[in-house]
Write a structure and sequence with these properties.
With 100 residues, the chain is α+β, with helices and mostly antiparallel strands. It contains three helices and four strands. The longest helix has 17 residues.
Length: 100
């Protein structure tokens, strides 16, 4: 069943964040992930305005997301992000088939 990682990120050092952006895709791809969106234009339809960068990545399953997040490749990316951004990363299980 697919799983998704949703990241909401407040970038505080754009130059250093570029280093993270160059490293993260390597780990994402290695562990079966694919970007569904990566910080593109967005609009808040309801609730408080979202001003953070939003990234959604799809994985084959929850185990793949956890393997990615705990991997040495992503640790290198996380270390690069440490002083460049603050974020919230949430993972959730997808549906095994559409509801309708």
């Amino acid at each position: 069943m697919p799983a998704y990682m949703i990241a909401r990120i407040d970038v505080t050092d754009p130059e250093q964040y570029e280093v993270y952006k160059s490293l993260a895709p390597i780990a994402i791809k290695k562990y079966g992930g694919r970007y569904l969106t990566r910080g593109g234009p967005m609009e808040t339809l309801e609730g408080p305005e979202e001003t953070r960068r939003v990234v959604i990545v799809e994985y084959p399953d929850m185990a793949a997301v956890k393997a990615f997040y705990d991997s040495p490749e992503y640790k290198k990316a996380r270390d690069a992000r440490k002083d460049a951004a603050k974020g919230q990363f949430v993972i959730l299980e997808g549906l095994d088939k559409p509801l309708w």
